[in-house]
Amino acid sequence: MTGSVRHFLDLDQLDAATLRAIINHGLAIKRGAWSGKPLAGKTLALIFEKPSTRTRVSFEVGMRQLGGDVVVLDSPGSQLGRGETVGDTARVLSRYVAAIMIRTDSATKLAELAEFGSVPVINGLTDRSHPCQIMADVMTFEEHLGPIKGRVVAWVGDGNNVATSWIHAAARFEFELRLACPEQLKPAQAVVDWANANGGRVRFVSSPQEAVAGVDCVVTDTWVSMNHQDRSERINLLLPYRVDDALMAGAKPDAVFMHCLPAHRGEEVTDAVIDGPRSVVWDEAENRLHIQKAILIWCLVD
Ligand code: CP
Fold first, then answer.
1. Which of 60, 160, 288, 292 to mutate to test the pocket of ligand 1 (most atoms within 8 A of CB)?
2. Ligand 1 pocket check for 52: Cβ under 6 Å
């Protein structure tokens, strides 16, 4: 059931004003300018079909700090793992909880939860996208460098689900995004076309060096994710895309480095960069907590 229920499914499905308001609220929550227990009496179901550290802990802690409670379901420990349909699960959970967050390998399951449930559904990562992460990343950018509108971000490496949400964000927050990815690992052209038809400036470039030239922010992600079996093939493809000090030297002197974590040090990023002065990865991780509180309030409080 969708109707007036406020789902947080993907950045391309929400308007720019809504996303801006959530970012501003996340920044206010972090500054301590906002407090209270607006979710008292409400419970959030967290469904994990894939592992998580940041998403699980930040949603659990955030919900409790807002006065609410959580119930965690993992795939092997619930009937979802034994074939109960997503639709039936959505109908049942909607009788118990105020909202559902899911991490799944399937964007279809996310859509089905929203279709068949009657409570807000939040995307905690699918094979297609990771919108909560990129909301935290935009918040982190703005904390360090000011408004992201009109600025330039470089994505270097695998054109994965996180890259897709960065592409959505480029349109919604009006910044330029350059992507340097191996041909075989580029995000879907349709996503780039959507962004450019909706006010974005998103383009593929031919090398990591071209991507980072003069940018405000360099972003990468792990080369081998939870669903990949072809580890050595991917690493060979992605070796030229490692973010090291030499690559960061091409960005602006005050440019920041971002990575949603977990990182594979020595693969997509060197220790010197992730532990260096331009790295804001720990702020990114912290900001998952603040922005998800803002998302939960947007979903659940008028
Ligand atoms: N970045 C992120 O989503 O981290 P987890 O996989 O630990 O949740």
1. 288
2. yes
Give the Å distance between the CA of 152 and the centre of ligand 1.
Answer: 24
pLDDT digits (tens, 9 = 90+) for 14-23: 999 999 999 9
Ligand 1 proximity of 104 Cβ (cutoff 6 Å): no
pLDDT tens for each residue of 241-292: 999 999 999 999 999 999 999 999 999 999 999 999 999 999 999 999 999 9
pTM above 0.85, yes or no: yes
- HEC profile for the chain? CCCCCCCECCHHHCCHHHHHHHHHHHHHHHHCCCCCCCCCCCEEEEEECCCCCHHHHHHHHHHHHCCCEEEEEECCCCHHHHCCCHHHHHHHHCCCCCEEEEECCCHHHHHHHHHHCCCCEEECCCCCCCHHHHHHHHHHHHHHHCCCCCCEEEEECCCCHHHHHHHHHHHHHCCEEEEECCHHHCCCHHHHHHHHHCCCEEEECCCHHHHHCCCCEEEECCCCCCCCCCHHHHHHHHHHHCECHHHHCCCCCCCEEEECCCCCECCCECHHHHCCCCECHHHHHHHHHHHHHHHHHHHHCC
